[in-house]
Amino acid sequence: MKRLIAVTVGILFFVQMATAMAGSSLIEAFVDGEAGQGRYLLKELQVVPNHLLWVYIPTAAGGLILTYLLFVSRLVPRPIAILGIVGYAALSLGVPLDLLGVLNLNDGSGLVLLAPGGLFEAVVLPIWLIAKGFTAPPSAKIFTAPALAPAS
Has the keyword Membrane been applied to this entry (predicted)? Predict the structure, then answer.
């Protein structure tokens, strides 16, 4: 089960990176006027103004999985993991609201939704990991090297 979760997190990471790279290159081609056939589609869908919002969707999904695993495994204190869960849940709520035009994540109440995630990613988790590192799970066995057999 743990291996399946790790593989899923890895796949989500690569999907996120592919989305970011493909989306950015399409946007740059559109802005430079070299988009060719995709130019009409990008213009009609109006993806250009909100292209970063689409990258936040797999980021929020991967972040929720990561912070849930941190919470369950107790590698970091639970309040830190809960801050991450709240931050990524707020991000996953804010992106659709921004896409629908209800709020803007770049100012005002939209920034309030980004604050818990920013605190988790940029302040609390890095400081904790630098200062304390991961907590070893209670079931972890201490590895001792096998003794060498005496030469006869």
Answer: yes
Query: In the structure, what pLDDT confidence band is assigned to residue 101 with cuts at 50, 70 and 90?
Result: confident
Sign of CA dihedral 132, 134, 140, 146: negative
Residue 46 dihedral angles phi and psi, to the nearest 5°: 55, 45
Angle at 59 between CA 21 and CA 69, to 5 degrees: 135
Residue 76 per-residue DSSP state: S
Residues 71, 103: Cα–Cα separation, whole Å: 30
The per-residue pLDDT for 75 is: 87
Pairwise CA distance, residues 113 & 95, whole Å: 10
Angle between helices 78-99 and 109-119 (to 10 degrees): 150
Closest of 45, 58, 47 to residue 9, by C-alpha: 58
Query: pTM higher than 0.90 for the full model?
Result: no
Question: What local confidence, expressed as pLDDT, does residue 45 receive?
Answer: 54
Structure tokens at 69: 């695993």
